Amino acid sequence: MEEDEEFVDIYALLQVDPSCERSIIEKAYRHFAQLYHPDHTETADVERFQELTRAYRILKDPAKRSEYDKRYILERGEKPTGTPREDIVIDGATAVQDAEMHEQILLALYKQRRENAREPGVMPYYVQRELDCSDESFEFHTWYLKSKGFIEITQQSELAITIEGVDHVISNSRAAKEKLLLEQAAREV
To answer: What is the mean pLDDT of residues 75-97?
Structure first.
């Protein structure tokens, strides 16, 4: 939507709440697209169908929706309730990277406990340096793993893997091995 264009409340056009999830937008679009599609002789409305399609294209794209929401605020003088703030939006790739970082931390601590059972702890600094991770990021990862019961802080202020953490590492290793075997079997067929 260009700034010089006349403002259209596309949330109202799709009859959805501005704070709704993308899945609701998709359902609303499908409903109205089917209703106004040119192939439906009784309810066809080509202009309305094109407006709905344009609205859907804006709202299904997170970047375009964010830009539209800025204009919505200016035009309506209100922020759509429940819409995510740009500075806190996290995509799926970030969550996957976090999960991988959790696994790397657990594997490092598992290795330490396995190789040196009497001194299973590692200073957090060494783990953080090895993983090349920022202070804030490392603090998040250790908070998460500690909250899940996978790691603990020893009396010497070191990180150590717990029994739950060891079980998690073993479980994930088994799952990875089974997946690899299934992929190999599928290739052989």
So the answer is: 63
